[in-house]
Amino acid sequence: MPKDAIDVACRAGQFTAMFESDPVARADMKAGTLYAIAGERGWIYYGQVTADKAIAFFLRRDRAIATAEDITSSPVMAVVNVAYPSIGRALRAGIWKKLGRYPLSKQSASRMVVQWPVGTFRVTVWQGGTPSHETSVDDPAIQMMEIMAVWDAEYHIPQRLTADFCAEEASWHVGGPIWRERRVKEDRSRRFPDEPAHKLPGDWVPTNAPESPGKLSVMSVAEDSADF
């Protein structure tokens, strides 16, 4: 997800520091490390470091920090890569808070992510750090897979969590899984019709087509993301 002017304008004022800042805090990326994250609208979300140093975000949010047992027994709604330096910055700013290290409830040997090069609609599916196969971006089998990207803990993740939780309308430009990245491209095409870079090809398959997930319910996201 690029840090561009649209991101800056849309995220302004939507979340604030919620936890005590720690001026010397550094990210801990050991598997099982559990974090609380200050989300939008005063919600607290949670993420845990996986065996492959990604962050698994739980399908749960609270107004006050829950117990680690309750957090880690919740389903997982998304597993994404978060930039290591940005986690330390978020800890120092009071946006993230380290809760400790706890056993991973579930995890899979490898997860599948999608590499989507600029200027093409052919994508490569990766599994366990190795290319698996190529397909088209509208392939129904890949719609819930994450696009290959690194997210910023402070500037991207709070909005991303709102979008994943699906309880409120999220900012239109928040991507993540392939179906949402396709939706973002459609929105950019509508918003900037005179910009050639945002023009969609004639054979583009719209996300409101019957085979597309469209706006998924929170439980359907959880069912497809349960293992990490």
Can you put this structure into words, describing what you see?
By secondary structure, the chain is of the alpha+beta class. 23% of the residues lie in helices and 22% in strands. It has a 6-stranded mixed beta sheet.
Defining traits:
disordered N terminus, 22% strand, alpha+beta, four-stranded mixed sheet, six-stranded mixed sheet, 228 residues, disordered C terminus
Blueprint (SSEs and pairs):
Layout: H1 5-11, E1 33-38, E2 44-49, E3 55-58, H2 68-72, E4 76-82, H3 84-93, E5 96-101, E6 112-115, E7 122-127, E8 130-136, E9 146-147, E10 150-151, H4 157-165, H5 178-191, H6 218-224
Parallel strand pairs: 4-10, 6-9
Antiparallel strand pairs: 1-2, 1-5, 2-3, 3-4, 6-7, 7-8
**What count of helical segments does DSSP give?**
6
Oligomer: single chain
Radius of gyration: 17 Å
Structural class: alpha+beta
The topology string of helices and strands comes to HEEEHEHEEEEEEHHH
Task: Give the percentage of residues in beta strands.
Answer: 15-25%
Count of beta strands: 10
- Helix fraction, binned, reads 10-25%
Span between termini: 22 Å
Q: Largest beta sheet, briefly?
A: 6 strands, mixed
Low-confidence stretches: 1-14, 210-228
Approximate shape: globular
Q: Order of strands across the biggest sheet? A: 5-1-2-3-4-10
On the 0-100 scale, what is the average pLDDT?
Answer: 86
